Amino acid sequence: MTTPPGIPPHIIGLARALEVLTSAQRTLGARMSHDLDLPRATIGLLLHLSRAGSTQVGCLAQHLKVDTSVASRHVSALVAAGLVERTVADDDRRGRSVGLTDAGRAKVTQLFARLTTDLSAAFAGWDPADLDTAAAAVIAVADAINRIDAPAAASALPGADGAAGPLPTPDQKDHA
């Protein structure tokens, strides 16, 4: 691999580690997607809805860091599958929110069970304190990357730091 001159080795090592982590995440997502008959791109959307509850498509797009049209396509696929539903706001008929259906909550329960089973198997030999340290390091790295071009105004919004936080259990909701 050719790297530009002057780049510190620790930055090159971090870039490589992120590449490896991204590949592992895609592998895990593809496995869950296949086993649960669910488009891989919608997994994050379902997990977010399980934490946040009913949310507008624009907020989903912002959280997932995708264009609103991309989030809308994912929502449409999940609506067609019966996993989410769109609702119209009572106070503003133009506002539409997306929330999990009963089938969607059941799918999130399956998704969460599969994810935790896979992660438990992958990290069976790890000390719990080492797992806590690794999780904190991954979150710190993600936070640092998310701050690269984040506008100052966005950092004042709740949850705008991009931190995913701990994985929710299917019955937990983060309304912060």
From TrEMBL:
The keyword Transport does not apply. This is DNA-binding MarR family transcriptional regulator. One of its GO terms (molecular function) is DNA binding. InterPro entries: ArsR-like_HTH, HTH_MarR-typ, MarR/SlyA-like, Tscrpt_reg_MarR-type_CS, WH-like_DNA-bd_sf, WH_DNA-bd_sf. Residues 14-143 form the HTH marR-type domain. Gene3D superfamilies: Winged helix-like DNA-binding domain superfamily/Winged helix DNA-binding domain. It comes from Flavimobilis soli. Pfam families: MarR_2 (PF12802). Residues 156-166 have a biased composition (Low complexity). It comes from the Bacteria. Residues 156-176 are annotated as: Disordered. SMART domains: HTH_MARR.
